[in-house]
């Protein structure tokens, strides 16, 4: 599916035309995967577009860069401001934001020291990641044959471009085998996460999700759902999950910026529960979508409203 172009992309502090936002083919990032990024959504609310948990996303962004000793020329505050601006300048409402910090063009050796550290932010419309129907009907997944990175190989907590080679292998396998998504186990054989989403299971009314030590990305939707679920009165636990627990769970769902909250209705062709979206998943979806779209009060302060009109720079 082709991307919908917008007008301008923010690159190193300036807005450039979408078609001019280019880098050299010998940039370090192209050869060695030296980038960290974020995926953020903005939703159209009654008070105009609002970015979901912008502060937390930019905090993780800066932390991912820190792990790889990449120092952006811009502060967290400047990057947050630029995210709001890029939505406003492109007159977007519902959209997806893609900030990236990467090592640019200077020399071709692996040693990253001395490469220029560049920062860019694009924003564009993006619909439901696994299709419109996935949110209500759910998706079919398999356990992938590729494991998530072992903790002493690549840091899973950094949202780094290179980690998505592992995600691509999982996704390719899923699509080729006619599943919507693949779940990776960690190198111990316990459930880790999907190619681009965290997992939750519901057993006897209790929510369980793998801990950070299971090689997961600490998802911001994951932490939002943990909070929402607790406030709805559910018990939420982070616990190591053996593969077979997925087969006998009452409910199973994904969380992530792209998938939002999406039910998983079968694993390895074994139906989860009765094979339909379950009531706990539905209750969490209702609260989550209510908050992000501004239909329910923003009781956690998760929305950053995009200033429009005179306040827009660029
Ligand atoms: N795990 C991986 C590997 C991901 O790429 C993502 C998407 N960023 C997630 C989990 C979910 O994280 P978040 O809820 O912050 O989007």
Order of helices and strands: EEHEEEHHEEHEHEEEEHEHEEEHE
Provide mean pLDDT, rounded: 96
The termini sit apart by 29 Å
Please bin the fraction of helical residues: 25-40%
Question: What value does the Rg take, in angstroms?
Answer: 20 Å
**Sheet with the most strands?**
9 strands, mixed
Ligands bound here?
4'-deoxy-4'-aminopyridoxal-5'-phosphate
Poorly predicted runs: none
H/I helix tally? 8
Shape annotation: globular
The strand count comes to: 17
Beta-strand percentage?
25-35%
Structural class: alpha+beta
Oligomer: single chain
Description:
By secondary structure, the protein is of the alpha+beta class. 26% of the residues lie in helices and 27% in strands. The protein contains eight helices and 17 strands. Strands 8, 9, 10, 11, 12, 13, 14, 15 and 16 form a nine-stranded mixed beta sheet that branches. Strands 1, 2, 3, 4, 5, 6, 7 and 17 form an eight-stranded antiparallel beta sheet that branches. Helix 2 packs across helix 3 (76-89). It starts with 7 loop residues before the first strand and ends in a 9-residue tail after the last strand. The mean pLDDT is 96. Bound molecules: 4'-deoxy-4'-aminopyridoxal-5'-phosphate. Residues 39, 167, 193, 196-198, 217, 219-222, 255-257 line the site of 4'-deoxy-4'-aminopyridoxal-5'-phosphate. 4'-deoxy-4'-aminopyridoxal-5'-phosphate is lined by residues 39, 167, 193, 196-198, 217, 219-222, 255-257.
């Amino acid at each position: 599916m082709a991307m919908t172009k917008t007008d301008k992309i923010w690159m190193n502090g300036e807005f450039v035309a979408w078609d001019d936002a280019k880098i050299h083919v010998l940039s370090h990032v192209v050869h060695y995967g030296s980038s960290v990024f974020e995926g953020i959504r903005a939703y159209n609310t009654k008070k105009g577009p609002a970015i979901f948990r912008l502060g937390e996303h930019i905090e993780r962004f800066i932390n991912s860069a820190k792990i790889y000793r990449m120092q952006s020329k811009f502060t967290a505050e400047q990057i947050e401001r630029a995210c709001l601006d890029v939505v406003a300048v492109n007159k977007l409402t519902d959209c997806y934001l893609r900030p990236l910090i990467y090592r640019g063009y200077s020399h071709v050796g692996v040693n990253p020291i001395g490469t220029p550290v560049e920062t860019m932010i694009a924003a564009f419309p993006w619909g439901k990641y696994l299709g419109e129907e996935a949110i209500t009907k759910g998706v079919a997944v398999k356990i992938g044959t590729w494991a998530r990175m072992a903790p002493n190989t690549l840091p899973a907590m950094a949202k780094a471009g290179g980690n998505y080679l592992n995600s691509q292998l999982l996704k390719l396998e899923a699509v080729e085998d006619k599943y919507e998504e693949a779940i990776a186990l960690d190198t111990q054989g316990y459930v880790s996460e999907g190619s681009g989403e965290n997992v939750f299971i519901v057993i006897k009314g209790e929510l369980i999700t793998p801990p950070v030590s299971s090689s997961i990305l600490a998802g911001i939707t994951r932490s939002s759902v943990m909070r929402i679920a607790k406030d709805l009165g559910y018990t939420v636990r982070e616990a190591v999950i053996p593969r077979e627990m997925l087969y006998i769970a009452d409910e199973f769902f994904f969380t992530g910026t792209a998938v939002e909250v999406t039910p998983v209705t079968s694993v390895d062709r074994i139906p989860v529960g009765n094979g339909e979206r379950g009531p706990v998943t539905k209750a969490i979806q209702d609260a989550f979508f209510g908050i992000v779209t501004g239909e329910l009060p923003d009781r956690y302060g998760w929305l950053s409203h995009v200033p429009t009109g005179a306040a827009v720079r660029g």
